[in-house]
Amino acid sequence: MISQQRKEALMEKNTLHPVTVTDLEEVLGLERASFQHPWNSEHILNEIYSPLSFPLLARLKGGFCAGYICPMLVLDEGHILNVAVHPSCRGRGVGRILLEAALKQFRTKGASVVYLEVRPTNTAAISLYSRCSFVTTGRRKAYYENGEDAILMKYEIHVQKEEPHAV
Asked: Which among 47, 59, 56 is positioned nearest to 89, based on CA atoms?
């Protein structure tokens, strides 16, 4: 995980907040800047209004939209549906801050495991997920619209249990 000192320095420049309808155009801009086949406004609005999803937005100190993540919780299973970081902000810890914030919320909401899919060609994302303790569990053949496979990754949430009290 990212060191506390580095996280505090990054967060002095960044703020996280839930994505709202007023952020829609900026999120669409992140999508277009990040993906060959970006989500459309209907897809993003569905996640904003879904009781299962809790998308988060990272803003730089000046208000610039640096990235967003779209986590979803179904029962005790978390799913990372999408992560996008603006090209000018990549490699600066924004993705990691977003991912760690989502994992913290999953833990708070009672998730036991988190899943995601990632393109094998997205080596930066795979590296980030691995550094954050995600492990590869499999592969979905021809998952993406261009026929590219998806690497399946999983993160186990370990909840510390209280020690039983002696009687």
From this structure: 59
Q: What residue ranges do the domains of the chain occupy? A: 4-156
Quote the CA–CA distance of 75 and 90 in Å, as a whole number. 32
Residue 61, pLDDT score: 84
- Give CA–CA dist 65/46, Å, rounded: 20
Whether residue 162 is predicted with pLDDT greater than 80 in this model: the reply is no
- The model carries a pTM of 0.86
Specify the DSSP element, H or E, that contains 101: helix 94-108
Contact 92, 58 (CB under 8 A): no
Token output for 84 = 């996008």
What distance in Å separates the CA atoms of residue 55 and residue 59, rounded to the nearest whole number? Answer: 13
As a whole number of angstroms, the distance between CA 74 and CA 162 comes to: 25
List the CATH code of the domain at 4-156: 3.40.630.30
Over residues 73-121, the pLDDT tens digits come to 999 999 999 999 999 999 999 999 999 999 999 999 999 999 999 999 9
